[in-house]
Amino acid sequence: MTITFIDLKTQYKRLKPLIRENLDRVLDHGAYVMGPEIERLENQLAEFCGAGHAVACSSGTDALLLSLMAQKVGPGDAVLTTPFTFCATAETIALLGATPVFVDIDAGTFNLDPEQAEKALAALNHNDPGIHALPRSGFRGTLQPKGIISVDLFGLPCDYPSLTQLARKHGLWLIVDAAQSFGALINGESTCALGDAACTSFFPAKPLGGYGDGGMCFTRDPDLAGILRSLRMHGQGRDRYENVRLGLNARMDTLQAAVLLAKMTIFPEELDLRRKAALEYNRLLGSIPGITVPAFFQDRQSAWAQFSLLAESGPHRQKILDRLKEKHIPWAVYYPQPLHLQTAFTYLAYRSGDFPASEDAAARIFSLPMHPYLRSGDQEMIAGVIAQA
Ligand SMILES: Cc1ncc(COP(=O)(O)O)c(C=O)c1O
């Protein structure tokens, strides 16, 4: 049997009658836009995360965009974030005219390092790039730090006790990019319940994925939730034809909500299966020389969106990836190029060497098949190929 990177087919086989029933219900009532499934999903996920309010939207990218718009982010604003993430995190900051100020990651978690963030804030406040690398161009005047977007990479929660304290100390808002961490916990709390707002993605490959694009914003603040609801519908006021602010068309399709409601029935079990698969990988791969497996933390429970590990060097990674390919084992590299070195962000004039931990991770990291239906025999086979390489 072939090994797949993610296995949506097995999941569909399990859920087929329920998914079909839910989709049929939408086709019967015909409320394709903002049908009753949207509110049902929002209520269910807000409760699941203990987040208070959930606002469904069209993608994880739009969830970030809406949350930044709600904070009135614009030119002259500096938003701290990691360069070791999917482009959407920094792209949304830049699209609103604000400036992404990159902060290096902690090498052990691949997540934004709060100590480096403190340095970046000192560098911004003293306008001194000697303290921490800052954008060298791409903005006018001085940058005002306004907020932080943390990213729970691969599903692992960031160090939220430190980040929350840092944000509070400097009067900044905190937006949690939980695109990869829906279902993850830190000290028993969902990452979607943290920050001023949290944003997740239901892209099909995510731990909770739909059959197309989808996303959600979470917040404990009812006023902010109201603004997010307005922003996703062209800035509507009391009704559709009263526009009180500039917004977007960023609604989730009812059909996606119907799929996600079906998938939620087995999501806790799937989270558990992902965690067991990760434990098994660590057991099989942990003692292979030159391989660094992801850490488990007492206070945090990853959603295991990806199982990402480090080779000893770039050439070592290449050797492993070549061997895996020979054996028809799928792999991925998240992310081969940190954002500060991507063409889209050259206008900020960052340089190679500005964020050494991110650059080192990009050179050595790779991800293995990860999904709830991974067979332990396949994991043993994968580990054998890596050990040989
Ligand atoms: C960290 C991160 N942020 C944002 C996004 C954007 O989500 P979407 O693809 O749903 O727009 C993704 C999706 O891959 C992501 O991994």
Task: Write down how many β-strands occur, each being a DSSP E stretch of 2 or more residues.
Answer: 12
Name of the CATH superfamily of the largest domain: Type I PLP-dependent aspartate aminotransferase-like (Major domain)
* Total helical segments: 12
Which ligands, by name, code or SMILES, are bound? pyridoxal-5'-phosphate
Q: Strands of the biggest beta sheet: in what spatial order?
A: 1-9-8-5-4-2-3
Biggest sheet character:
7 strands, mixed
CATH topology of the largest domain: Aspartate Aminotransferase, domain 2
The CATH class label of the largest domain is Alpha Beta
Strand content: 5-15%
- Stretches where pLDDT is under 50 for at least 5 consecutive residues are none
pLDDT averaged residue by residue? 97
Domains (count) = 2
Global outline: globular
Overall CATH architecture of the largest domain: 3-Layer(aba) Sandwich
Going by helix content, strand content and strand pairing, the class is alpha/beta
- Radius of gyration equals 21 Å
How would you concisely characterize the structure shown here?
This protein is of the alpha/beta class and 389 residues long.
Defining key terms:
389 residues, alpha/beta, Aspartate Aminotransferase, domain 2, Aspartate Aminotransferase, domain 1, 2 domains, seven-stranded mixed beta sheet, 12 helices, binds pyridoxal-5'-phosphate
Descriptive report:
By secondary structure, this protein is an alpha/beta fold. It has helices spanning 8-29, 36-49, 60-70, 88-95, 114-125, 160-169, 222-231, 254-264, 267-285, 314-326, 356-364, 376-388; strands at residues 53-57, 77-81, 99-102, 144-151, 173-177, 185-186, 189-190, 197-201, 215-219, 300-301, 307-310, 365-368. The strands form three sheets. Strands 1-9-8-5-4-2-3 form a seven-stranded mixed beta sheet, with helices on both faces. A three-stranded antiparallel beta sheet has the order 7-6-10, with no helix packed on it. The protein is globular and about 65 Å long. The model has no long low-confidence stretch (mean pLDDT 97).
